[in-house]
Amino acid sequence: MQPPVKSGPRYDNLIQSDKVRVIDENGENLGVMYTREAIEQAADVGLNLVEISPNADPPVAKFLDVGKYRYEAQKKANAARKTQKTQDIKEIKMRPNIDDHDYDVKMRSVTKFIGEGDKVKMTLRFRGREMAHQELGIELLRRVQDDVTEIAKVEAFPRLEGRQMVMVLAPK
C-alpha cells in the first residue's frame, strides 16, 4: 500500500529513487549513494534525508530536520505573499467636451494611479448628439496618451463600446 501523498518535499522512505546525491548537515557533498544507506546515515545524526531537487539525475538529498524545513519554507512563502503588489484597475470617466481645468484634475489622478502601479481605464462617455462627433473623443484620448507617454503605455487602444469609448493605460 502506497503512503498518502503529503505536501512538501519527499523524505526518508518516501524518496522513490534507488540512488541519491547526498549533502550532509554541514553542506558537504558526500557523493552518490544508495538511498537506504543515506537514510541510515541521516538517522545516525538524528536528522531526515530530504529530497531537495527531485528532477536532477540522480536526485539531490540533504540531511535536514523535515519539520524545521517545512516551517522555513512556509515562512518564506508568507513573506513573499506579504510583499507582493496586486495591480488594480482604476477608472477615470470623461466627456468629449471636457474643460481644460477639469482635464488637468483628471490627469493628476491618472498620474497618481499610474505612479502607484495601477492600471487606468479611461472611459469617454458620449451623450445625445455627441455620438456624431466621435473624432473629438479620439482626439481627447490621443491627448491623454501624449500627456502620459513618459510614465505609461497604452495597453488597449481606444475602441467604441456602445455609447462609450474605452482605453486602458498601464505603467511602464
Automatic annotation (TrEMBL):
Boundaries of every Translation initiation factor 3 C-terminal domain copy: 88-172
The keyword Cytoplasm is annotated on this UniProt entry: yes
InterPro entries with a match to the protein in the record: T_IF-3_C_sf, T_IF-3_N_sf, Translation_initiation_fac_3, Translation_initiation_fac_3_C, Translation_initiation_fac_3_N
The entry's keywords: Cytoplasm, Initiation factor, Protein biosynthesis
A Pfam family the protein falls into: IF3_N
Gene Ontology molecular-function annotations: ribosome binding; translation initiation factor activity
Subcellular locations according to the entry: Cytoplasm
Limits of the Translation initiation factor 3 N-terminal domain: 14-79
GO CC annotations, alphabetized: cytosol; membrane
One example of a Gene Ontology biological process annotation: ribosome disassembly
Stated role: IF-3 binds to the 30S ribosomal subunit and shifts the equilibrium between 70S ribosomes and their 50S and 30S subunits in favor of the free subunits, thus enhancing the availability of 30S subunits on which protein synthesis initiation begins.
Subunit structure: Monomer.
Similarity annotation: Belongs to the IF-3 family.
Name used for this protein in its record: Translation initiation factor IF-3
UniProt organism field: Tsuneonella litorea
